[in-house]
Amino acid sequence: MKLSTTAVIVVMILVVLPISTREFTTLAQTESLFFPADSGLLPAHSYVWQEINGFCAWAATTMAMQYAGVDITMYDVFAATTIGFSFAYFRFDDTFLMFPGALYTQVEPTQFLADLYGINYTLYVGDNIPNLEQNVQVWESEGIQVGVIDGQVEAFDLMRQTIDRGYPLLISVDPIYLPAYDYNYLREGELAGGGHGVLIVGYNDSETSATILDPGVGSFGEYYGYPEDGRGNYTTLTYTALIDAWSSRYYISNTFFPMSPVDDQMVVYNPKGDLLGPMVRDKLLGVGSIYSPNSPNALIGKFGEAGFRQLSQDITVDGLKSFLSVFDGVDDETNFKASLLYFIGLGLEAQVTLQYLSYRTALVSLPALIPEIDLEAFVEAGEAALPAFYDLADNSSLIFPGNISQATGDVASTFFTMAQGFNTTGDLDSTLASYEGFLDSVSDNLLMIADSWLNAGNALAVIWPNDFLTIYGPVLAFGGGGIAALVIVIFWWMRKKPSQ
User: Which of 265, 288, 319 is the last residue of a domain?
Assistant: First the structure.
């Protein structure tokens, strides 16, 4: 089967690092705080492996939080950021996009995590990043701290100063430039342009090299498995390779520092308070304004349980026919639609798998983060989703990104066979009808997840009652604005119309 390249949905999931903002101290302002040094190396902490392609940002964040003094695991991070309890789905016109919490957004969850544990989090981005001013305005409106880096010199100054303070710098890189043989998979497939999170823990100007912690080795390809040889732990990287890898990602960088003495006077939330529980509740129940604050996506997308519920309706014979009908009349229509059909299945398997892996571990971690609250009913309700997740999940599509022949999970392989059949016959109705039982099974599993998330969210709502305005505020504001505009128009028309 020849699949149309124009229909390819990128399934490689090396993650883009969080982008965030707030007031920040510039490099020039901090320079006087540090003595010149040509080298620095941080002491070893626990190495955190990301376990599968898609979790690099969160593994790196876990290590950065540990350096900042927080005793936390990656599974705790899945729970404390709420990404394990988050899911987003967009289906309208020619759009069919699924985002597990680990990929949907990383800025706000990272800031939320830092606030919970009293960590000062700042993101830096290069001044050449697209739409810088607009992005900064959005980030600042969300209370996120950002600094702007003017080129390589400032990026390296930030690296040195952060390490001299005793903390690593979390950066986003294109992994194709990293030295580990694991990334030969990307180089051989010419899969450049990915985003991957690593920590810089050392630098040596005399040797022109940096030392990194790379959570991504062993995460995909034929080398999948925990790096027993330690190749991701304290890896040396030349400055030339670092510049290529880092500049390709606009020098995106993240710092995690303990609060300064001045900041100690601030109110600091922690996971034992009443912030984490309501946030998990709203993520499970799909409150759009929580997922996409100040964004029309809050009204366009389906989130949490509502995302899985809508997806269960769209992964059916009628749902797939409706979506594919949008492309009636395109060039090479049958091949194009066959490609789309396959990549829907491949994307579904990959994204649901990533959600499953973060959800099941977050479900275990959350009660330990807030032990003073009885979460037995929540856990029981949430566990009902695990068998359905298991039926849909398979690691192969994540371990071998871009390699169709290695996507051997039941969902991906069945959709592939389905797409082949349609591409051969050109008869979509008969093809889908012959797979109706399979599609019904997938739909039922998605609905089971939706019901479980709804019940789990409602179990939390018993402890932390829902705020009506939080859930319906955007709708009311939108509707109220429309009503106000209508009143103004009517009033103007009445003033303009001659009296009877």
Answer: 265
pLDDT-derived band at 360 (thresholds 50, 70, 90) equals: very high
**Displacement of CA 402 from its chain's centroid (Å):** 19
In angstroms, the CA 61 to CA 118 distance is 15
Cα dist. 204→42, 61, 156, 238 in Å? 12, 24, 11, 10
What sign does the dihedral 91-75-177-251 (CA atoms) show? positive
DSSP code at position 332? T
Band (pLDDT 50/70/90 cuts) for residue 175 is very high
Q: What is the pTM of this model?
A: 0.85
Closest CA to 409 of 432, 393, 387, 389: 393
- Taking alpha carbons only, the member of 422, 414, 405, 430 closest to residue 337 is 422
Please say whether the beta carbons of 303 and 287 come within 8 A.
yes
Residue 203: predicted pLDDT = 97
Q: What's the CA dihedral at 268, 272, 274, 280 to 10 degrees?
A: 110
Same domain assignment for residues 129 and 234: yes
Same domain, 343 and 260: no
Rg (CA), the chain: 24
Determine if residue 218 is left, alpha or beta; phi over 0 gives left, psi from -120 to 50 gives alpha, anything else beta: left
Q: Determine which helix (DSSP H) or strand (DSSP E) holds 17, and give its type and residue range.
A: none
Q: Give the whole-angstrom CA distance, residue 443 versus residue 448.
A: 9
The verdict on 363 and 434 lying in the same domain is yes
Give the pLDDT band (50/70/90) at residue 159. Answer: very high
How many angstroms separate the CA atoms of 308 and 392, rounded? 13
Q: Which helix (H) or strand (E) holds 364?
A: helix 333-369
Question: 265, 296, 329 — which closes off a domain?
Answer: 265
In which domain, by residue range, is 366 found? 304-466
Q: How many domains does the chain have?
A: 2
Q: How confident is the model at residue 401 (pLDDT cuts 50, 70, 90)?
A: confident
Same domain, yes or no: 238 and 379: no
Query: Is residue 216 domain-shared with residue 363, that is, in the same domain?
Result: no
What is the dihedral angle through the alpha carbons of 244, 245, 251, 257, rounded to the nearest 10 degrees? -130
Rounded CA separation 155/253 (Å) = 9
Which of 129-143, 409-423, 475-489 reaches the highest mean pLDDT?
Answer: 409-423
155 with 235, same domain: the answer is yes
pLDDT score at 484: 39
CA dihedral (266, 272, 273, 278) in degrees, to 10, reads 130
Q: Does residue 274 sit within a domain?
A: no
User: Do 240 and 319 fall into the same domain?
Assistant: no
